[in-house]
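Input/output pair, single chain:
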Amino acid sequence: MSRVLSVAEERFPIAGAFTISRGTKTEAVVMTCSIAQSGRIGRGECVPYARYGETPQSVRAQIEAAADAISGGVDRLHLLSLMKPGAARNAVDCALWDLEAKLAGKSVAERVCSEPPVALETAYTLSLGSPEAMAAQARDNAERPLLKVKIGGEGDIARIRAVVEAAPDSRIILDANEAWTERNLRENLAAAAELGIALVEQPLPAGADTMLARIDHPVPICADESVHGADDLARLAGLYDAVNIKLDKTGGLTAALTMRDQARELGLSVMVGCMVGTSLAMAPAVLLAQGADFVDLDGPLLLARDRTPALTYRGSLVFPPEPALWG
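Output:
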């Protein structure tokens, strides 16, 4: 068996700007891993995330450090011990899934889905801004059944109220990205409950969230930055009601499938989320998200341009990937 590995950095402009509590970005910087064997090429995409100490350079270095093993035929299960969880392993793992499907002539969906995959309703994300600016975003997307609203700071209750009033028929997820505090947590949760919010994501900083075990949850609370892999789940089961599984955190689809099943066994609801990336990054996550309680795979909808071919989006529905894209 002989494989040829390549890694490329690519940049995709965001439509306008994307703002969360930690800052603003105007482009998605992704790393694409390609593995060629016997005339077939498998591809996987990851998004290096600064919050977790990742850069395009560090991701490239991690992949290249494993190049001999990858070229020599390492399989996905051995990859789990060869590379640490994170974006780099995600790109390699998903490239291997894609390559296996092409070599075997059997889709990834046939291997990981108990039933033929279907189109899923994805959240659409509203960028953090003033209450007036967020209300304008909400009005523009009020026909979408599920909105994910970036918040995080003083005045969040005004932001939440403005969005709810502008999109009264949409279910709403709030994502604080660790920006709430013990001082304002109860007040913000109470307001979220009053306004009919469906889910609150990562209100407190990771590692400073033990308070969640001591307070009522008038709205279900979902872990994001606090949860990376299956090893985190038992510790979080008493703090959170749900977990956000992202391939760039778990280090690929292989580990994410195990994490999803274990989360359900612990009674945790499952959200399948994403970083801001292209359809190539979303494709394996669409298969992971079959049957999930919440789906947040709108990354390509936030871009000014996507890959070709791309996933099919119709309104807030995202369809399973075609083989020309992935899997």
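The chain is about 35% helix and 25% strand. The CA atoms of residues 119 and 200 lie 24 Å apart.
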